[in-house]
Each structure stands twice: as structure tokens, then as C-alpha cells.
Amino acid sequence: MSALKISQFCLQHLGPFDLTVAAGECLVLSGASGTGKSLLLRAIADLIPHQGEAWLGEQLCAQTRPETWRYDVSLLPAESQWWYDTIGEHFTQYDEGLFAALGFDEAVLAWEVSRCSTGERQRLAMIRMLQQQPRALLLDEPTANVDAGNTQQMEAIIRHYQQQQQIPVLWVSHQHEQIRRIADRHVILKDNQLIEQSR
Amino acid sequence: MNVIHLSSMNLAVAAVLVLLLGIAATALKLGVSKTLYIAALRTTVQLLLIGLVLKFLFENVHLGWMALLATVMLLVAGREVMARQQRPFAGSWGYGLGTLSMFVSSFVLTLFALTVIIGTEPWYQPQYAIPLLGMMLGNTMNGVSLAMDRLTESAYQQRMVIEARLALGQHWREAIGGIARDSTRIGMLPMINAMAAAGIISLPGMMTGQILAGAPPLEAVKYQILIMFMITAGTGFATVLATWLGAKRLFDDRHRLRLERLRSKK
After folding, report:
1. Considering the domain boundaries, does residue A118 fall inside one?
2. Is B256 on the interface with A (CB under 8 A)?
3. Do residue A83 and residue B165 have CB atoms under 8 angstroms apart?
4. CB-based contact A185:A28 (threshold 8 Å)
5. Distance from chain centroid for Cα B169
6. How far apart are CA A113 and CA A80, in angstroms?
7. B1 pLDDT more than 80
8. Where in chain B are the domains?
9. What is the pLDDT of residues A65-124, one digit of tens each?
10. B181 and A CB contact within 8 Å
11. The whole model's pTM is what?
């Protein structure tokens, strides 16, 4: 499968950055708030203007249709977003195993979004993303509002998907415990530099 | 046709009513008296001026004069559309987008009505062309400004949702779809409501005017129906066009939501 690579990547006041996340690898990105981690993730998903290049394997972002790029290089924001009234309207398919692994059954499809807790919405947003079979993951503190038990469950599912599909995962996280559990590599964004941490 | 001549005295009596309302408003501390007087003064001056302009145009029927007046009307309507939006597009787009939509829709349909439906001779005869264009522009302006205001404001409010939808690989048209549809509908509603209420709840102004001027009621009604259809079609097409162009302008060629293309809220 394909590695995710950025080279001479600049956005707004940030960069240039060079970074490669290997296929099947989970790279954790951390750093003080306001250093631009979320901006960097949004730029890699090509949601905001940037200079430099992003690659998924042999595929160059600038030469890929934007819908295709974002479908493949999937961003999960810290706060999940919903635009229809019920959960089910946001799903085109129902993967029973995935829902069950995160503690849901088919009844969840009829739930009203406004009645779900933040944690429930976050877990459901992860299912929605994984069902599209992305080829790279950009996770922006996906477990920030999720309780401890479900956090570990989400980590396990991401880990499983990452290893089974051999895809690159770029995960923004602050919690030391979590970083120790999930990271294959750890990079800190500080003073506009990406600094690799030795383990 | 027998129209009872109105003297300045008649108008003065009506003006006294507005004056009385102003005094009442001052007594009630509503704080609108000054605005009320200025508006009343504006309506008097503006209508007298357009009366003089129409008098001149009726005596000098020429395409050039018609084109000049039509252009002025369009430009003022375009400015009004922009002024009624809380977050208009920055730069020339803010002015150009609404103006272009109104131009395409109002001018084409007025031309169509004059040449094909009514068949005036010459087709730019001011007696028909000016009222028709005026009513088209006035209503189209309403629809376009309502739709554009809704579109830009909703896109701003729901930017996280739009970006999340893009992040799932949706096309920009899908990501803004619901918002754009709502905006178009909002722009078209006033005309649909006006058609539904016409004749029962409200007597439209043009028909009332023709009847006052002594036209047979059924003739007046037929003109009114024609006008309602023209206005509805004009407003509808202009609204669809403006919403589509506006939605497209919110995104760049890489389907990124570019809200910095809007001016910040007044």
C-alpha cells in the first residue's frame, strides 16, 4: 500500500515541512495548542490553500481530483459534524461488525443527531469515515470527547484498520498515555519545526 | 379615460396625515419621526423627478434614452442588492453578481414581454417598457438579495459542516447543496405568496392604478396576471442564477471553501 508524504509543504505562516508516514505506520503529531497542527492536517486534506506537494504513494495531490483526494486521504475533525436530522441519513451502508465493535446496533440509525452525546457522535463519525475505506487517515484528536473505555476501543479499531489495510495514519494527540499506546513514531511541532522524538 | 385631476392642495391634505403620524411618533418617543419625514420627502422628490423623466421620455421616444434610464435603474438595483446583504462578496463580485443575475433575467424577460407578448410598436415604447422593467427589477432585486443574504450567511454559520462534508470526499455542489436550495427557495417565496394572495387578500398596485385611471377592470386584470407571471419567472430565474454563481464563488478550483472572499459582517 501507499505512504503519505509531504515535501516543501507551506501554508499561511507555517512550513516548509517535509514528512513521510509509511504505509501501515501510525505517526503521532503533538505540540502546544496554536502551533498549527489542525491547519497542517486540513492542508494535507487539501481543504485550505498551501504550497508544496503532498503524495499518497505515486499519486500527487495537485494532480488528483479534489473529491478523490479527500475521499482517499480522510480527515476526522476533533468535533464531528452532522447535517441531517437522523444518524442513518448520513450512512449509505451498514457495516454490522464496525457498529457492534463501538457498542451500537442497527437501532442507532433511527436516532436523532441532536439527542446523541458528543462521544457517541464522535464514535459514529469514525464509523462513517472508515466505511468509505480510506487509504490514509488524518485524525485530529478524535478521542478528545470520548470516555476512557471507548477511547481504547476506537484506538483498537483504528489500529486494526491501519494494519489490515497497511495504510498510513497521521494522528494528532496530546495525551501521553495515548501516545504511548498508539504511536509507531512521534513528532512534535514546535517553533515551526517538526522534531522527531526518539523512543 | 377620465382621471380626476389631483391638485397640490389634495396632496397637501394627505401630507398632513403623515405629519400627524410624525407628531404622534414623537409623543410616543418611537424615535422614527425624523426617518419618517425624510422618507416622505424622498418619495415626493424622487417620484416628481421620475415623473419629469417619464414626461421627457414620452415626448422623445428614442432607444438611446430608454437604454440610459434602464442602465441607471439596473445599477441602482445592483447597489441595493449588495447593501441588503450582511456578508456580500468582496471586490467587484459583491456588486457584479447580483447585478449580472438581474440583468440577464429582467432584461431578457422584459424584452420578451414587449416584443412577443404585448407587441408594442416600437418595442421600446416608454409607456410600456419603463413600468414593466421597473416592476421586474424591483421584485427581482428583492428575491436576489434575500437569496444571496441567506446563502452567504448560512455558508458562514455552517462552515464546519461544509468542510466536514468536503473532507468526506463530497463535491462542492453536494456540500453546499441544502444551503443553496434553501436560499433559492427563500428568494422565490415572496412572489409565490404574492400570486397566492392576489385578488383575495391584496389588490396588486398596477391593477389598482389602471382601474383608477379608468381602464376596464377585466383589461386591468389581464395585465396584472401577465405582470405577475413575468415577475415570478424573472425573480425565479435571477434567484437560481445568483445562487448558483454565488455558491460556485464560495469555492475555488480545488473545491475549498473560501470564506475570505466574503466581507466581514457589518
Report:
1. no
2. yes
3. yes
4. yes
5. 38
6. 11
7. no
8. 1-59, 61-261
9. 999 999 999 999 999 999 999 999 999 989 999 999 999 999 999 999 999 999 999 999
10. no
11. 0.89
